């Protein structure tokens, strides 16, 4: 979430032009971490795309997810399902997978958007090594890295039989929300030890999964950096962000969906920024 400017621009190794298409409009899409922020906006925009696509939104407490419940009421029955899922409780991931199997039988798109950066009196981005705590490291790893990979693990059988023709892709896709600060090659500022390292771990786990999928499954995995987005996650750290670098949720998700729409099977295992630039590991 942090950084920018000329140094980061120089480190962007490639850029691709991604254009909007209808590939994410059909089929079944799951958004994990959907009760607010970027995840909620993914649900909104996916539902707007067509009258046929179905969306499964997961969050820890669906009963308290007022915006998701409102979206469910606004759309036709069956368009949006809201399921409980806590990435720190694997049994809830298994239960969500079983529910999707029973209702839909497959998944065409999985978006993992859960992320933790700060919680008052629990975890804060570290500004120096002396502030690093074991509890913060473990919590960040559990939510930002371990959780998303367990979600992929349990959704794998559904993704294997996804990628239907109406998506326009011909393969299933996993998109994990990472961050530019996870890049080791792009780390010129230091700090934020727990968040950086946990997102770097997510990158490695996603890359490793992508290699396995590339050998035997019709599934691709990519990592996405949404930019610095005006959400609860980034709000305490926006003071030094230039206005033109602080994105609305609508803008960021629109750009990310353009990448998701246009991604090719050969992009399996790659890490893209919101503008289509490939980010160095």
Automatic annotation (TrEMBL):
Family annotation (SUPFAM superfamilies): NAD(P)-binding Rossmann-fold domains (SSF51735)
One of the Pfam families matching this protein, by short name: adh_short
GO cellular component terms listed in the entry, alphabetical order: cytoplasm
A molecular-function term among this protein's GO annotations: oxidoreductase activity
Record Gene3D superfamilies: NAD(P)-binding Rossmann-like Domain
InterPro entries hit by this protein: Fungal_SecMetab_SDRs, NAD(P)-bd_dom_sf, SDR_fam
Family: Belongs to the short-chain dehydrogenases/reductases (SDR) family.
Protein name: Uncharacterized protein
Species for this entry: Panicum hallii
